[in-house]
Amino acid sequence: MGRHYLPNLAHRDEMLKEIGFNSIDELFSDVPAGMVKEFNLPEGKSEYEVFLELSEILSKNRTVLEMPSFLGAGTYFHYVPAHVKYLIERSEFLTAYTPYQPEISQGMLQALFEYQSIMAELYGLPVVNSSMYDWGTAIAEAALMTVRLHRGKRKRFLVPKALSPEKRAVIATYTRGAGLEIVEVPWDEEGNLDLEKLKEAVGEAAGVYVEMANFFGLVEENVREIGEIAHDAGAYFVVGADPTMLGLFEAPGELGADIAVGEAAYLGNPMNFGGPRAGIFAVRNDKKLIRQMPGRIIGMTRDAEGRRAFVMTLQTREQHIRRAKATSNICSNEALVAVASAIHLASLGPRGLAELGEAILKNTAYLRKRLSEVAEIPFEGLYFKDVPARFEKPYSEVHEALLERGIHGGYYVGKHFPELGETALFAATETTRKEWVDALIEALREVA
């Protein structure tokens, strides 16, 4: 460690003495053994040497045009129009951070106001915040919000078992400190949420969550009925919806949702190895709900001279108000991702969004039809984006064989849902080409 220059290294002993410690080991004594290690860093390189090394590594990557990919399960390859990237790279958007002095950030506030307005229309609920981190954290914040709305008297939150394991992990992490009990409701024979099991579990639940479509890609058939069961038990109804399907299907608000969540990054943003993202969060027009919303809400008003102006109408995060009274500890807003999604949605318009949904639905239907020729589809019903396919041999072998043939297969779910056996989710979007699907099926005929 001594051969690398670190700022103030020469003053280390002096600083340790000042704070009452004799060594670095003593300073970190409460960290579990083996967690603190010396950094075995190599000698430094010039910028050009680093450039050459990174270029060599990056050259190993293959684009989706070179290697068709059917990997989805929550992260999808969507086409982003060129003008979206151009507009969000304008300096007033690209460098904008959380507006702590909102009165001097009128442009960014207006862009976020437009985002809220578009999402409110899309999700059928009038009040939308300026976005969460992602869909998973939006679900977790909704769970915490339903408990606050019950003043902590109810601490159970029901989620479908057919939920992304990554979202489930995020929910568990977010709600552990607050002592929430997360209860999974199984699926029925058709792959939909089991209504009878829901009725048995909903008793003292603070909220009930359901997704359109569920993790297996099935478009849930009984969303309205699930909402009625939740409301009859005094629970709040939370609906998660993929925004790319809302040009074709009923909005969560029309289906009785009190709270709706989703993923804004599906529009206007590339995959980026899974991030950054922006979680959509909307509620019905009820002051009790609005006051408990996490994050921030941008509103429109008039200034002292009667001119239109944008303001932070609600800012209940801990950096704006006293920590003990904050509804959320979200420390940074995914504003750029939200603005990109708003630009993309505004460009599509209602007709374009419907056409996008139709293209995804048709491509998914074709993928399902062809997959059924070489594998078993576990559930009947309408699929959107993801399609589960069950194989007789271990999917790891199938996947490796597909990679050897220049095709990236689906997401293996047997690890998380062993009852489904050797099943993987294969995904299609508007970008999926017929010849890619045909090549996948021909490869599966050989290996599966």
TrEMBL record:
<dbReference type="InterPro" id="IPR020581">
    <property type="entry name" value="GDC_P"/>
</dbReference>
<dbReference type="InterPro" id="IPR049315">
    <property type="entry name" value="GDC-P_N"/>
</dbReference>
<dbReference type="GO" id="GO:0019464">
    <property type="term" value="P:glycine decarboxylation via glycine cleavage system"/>
</dbReference>
<dbReference type="InterPro" id="IPR015424">
    <property type="entry name" value="PyrdxlP-dep_Trfase"/>
</dbReference>
<dbReference type="InterPro" id="IPR015422">
    <property type="entry name" value="PyrdxlP-dep_Trfase_small"/>
</dbReference>
<comment type="subunit">
    <text>The glycine cleavage system is composed of four proteins: P, T, L and H. In this organism, the P 'protein' is a heterodimer of two subunits.</text>
</comment>
<dbReference type="GO" id="GO:0004375">
    <property type="term" value="F:glycine dehydrogenase (decarboxylating) activity"/>
</dbReference>
<dbReference type="GO" id="GO:0009116">
    <property type="term" value="P:nucleoside metabolic process"/>
</dbReference>
<keyword id="KW-0560">Oxidoreductase</keyword>
<comment type="similarity">
    <text>Belongs to the GcvP family. N-terminal subunit subfamily.</text>
</comment>
<dbReference type="InterPro" id="IPR015421">
    <property type="entry name" value="PyrdxlP-dep_Trfase_major"/>
</dbReference>
<protein>
    <recommendedName>
        <fullName>Probable glycine dehydrogenase (decarboxylating) subunit 1</fullName>
        <ecNumber>1.4.4.2</ecNumber>
    </recommendedName>
</protein>
<dbReference type="Pfam" id="PF02347">
    <property type="entry name" value="GDC-P"/>
</dbReference>
<feature type="domain" description="Glycine cleavage system P-protein N-terminal">
    <location>
        <begin position="3"/>
        <end position="444"/>
    </location>
</feature>
<comment type="function">
    <text>The glycine cleavage system catalyzes the degradation of glycine. The P protein binds the alpha-amino group of glycine through its pyridoxal phosphate cofactor; CO(2) is released and the remaining methylamine moiety is then transferred to the lipoamide cofactor of the H protein.</text>
</comment>
<dbReference type="InterPro" id="IPR023010">
    <property type="entry name" value="GcvPA"/>
</dbReference>
